[in-house]
Design goal:
The complex is a heterodimer of chains A (about 100) and B (about 190). Chain A has about 100 residues and is mostly helical. In chain A, about 75% of the residues lie in helices and about 0% in strands. Chain A is elongated. Chain B is mostly helical and about 190 residues long. Chain B is extended. Classes of the chains: A mainly alpha (about 100), B mainly alpha (about 190). Chains A and B meet through helix 1, helix 2 and helix 3 of A and helix 1, helix 2, helix 3, helix 4 and helix 5 of B.
């Protein structure tokens, strides 16, 4: 109980990942979907850092760095697209984005 | 003892903050709770001895990403309540937990199946930042440079997408005006 092992961190990562997935599935607003995506990326980062610590290997931390870089660029491009969409249509609801339905 | 107390405290705080983020109907509350959660996550990195990663987490997430979201939210109507899908709650939670457990299995499977050994073991007697620097600029130099190019591409994409026609508001123009602006742009591209 008092000693924190790798399993504790993996369970925490699972819980956070589940919270993020619930957010992805139940949100209609695209901005909120982006928030949920950040939660997903962060929960995996915790798992990487924990494995890196408990196995004495730096690869996990390296992957966490690259995940952070990808998250930053995803936010930049995604928000740019979102602003363009909002200027055009006045809303960012997911259900209205059905122009490519065919 | 100290580590356990810190772990449980920050685990509770992080889960609470992220829970607020995915359940609240106010966009501003969600943003603030997400920023707080990011700070609390950096505490885990400090507990795990990944000091540099913790600092990067604070700088990039709480600094850059949150500022970007805050500026982006100026364009959106955040006073309106966020609408939500009301599907089957059982399916949503069940699928989420299933996928999360699957992710843990994917990460933990190599650990369980074989005796894993460190390919880039931590060197004794140097700080975490120095270690990270040594590995990042030798073994991971090419991915590092590719990530730099990717960030440059993302920056240019952000400027091009969001900065276009900043001086005129596309929401207040009539549809004909929007179409006219669009045609002018197409002409420019074609000529």
């Amino acid at each position: 109980m008092m000693e924190i092992t790798l399993n504790h961190y993996l369970v925490l990562s699972t819980i956070l990942f589940a919270i993020g997935l619930v957010g992805v599935m139940r949100r209609k607003n695209l901005l909120m979907l982006f928030f949920a995506t950040e939660i997903l990326l962060n929960s995996v980062n915790i798992a990487f850092a924990a494995i890196s610590h408990f196995y004495g290997d730096l690869t996990g931390q390296m992957f966490a760095f690259f995940v952070i870089a990808i998250a930053a660029s995803e936010v930049a491009v995604g928000l740019g697209l979102l602003i363009v969409w909002h200027k055009r249509h006045g809303n960012i609801d997911l259900d209205t984005m059905s122009t490519m339905r065919g | 003892m100290f580590e356990a107390v810190a772990f449980y405290l920050f685990a509770f705080l992080t889960i609470a903050m992220f829970f607020i983020t995915v359940t609240t109907s106010q966009a501003l509350y969600a943003l603030t709770a997400l920023a707080a959660g990011m700070i609390f996550i950096s505490a885990f990195f400090f507990i795990l001895g990944a000091d540099f990663l913790g600092a990067v987490q604070i700088v990039v997430y709480s600094g850059a990403v949150m500022a970007l979201y805050a500026f982006g939210m100026m364009f959106f109507d955040t006073t309106r309540d966020v609408k939500e899908k009301h599907g089957n709650k059982l399916i949503v939670s069940g699928l989420s937990i299933l996928v999360a457990v699957l992710v843990v299995v994917i990460i933990a499977a190599p650990i369980v199946s074989t005796n894993m050994s460190a390919s880039y073991p931590m060197t004794e007697g140097v700080g975490n930042t120095q270690e990270v620097g040594m590995v990042l600029f030798t073994k991971y130099l090419v991915p590092f440079e590719v990530a730099a190019v990717m960030l440059l591409v993302a920056m240019i994409a952000g400027i091009v997408l969001a900065g276009k026609k900043m001086d005129l508001s596309l929401t207040l123009m009539s549809d004909d005006d929007v179409r006219q602006v669009k045609e002018e742009e197409n002409k420019k591209v074609l000529s």
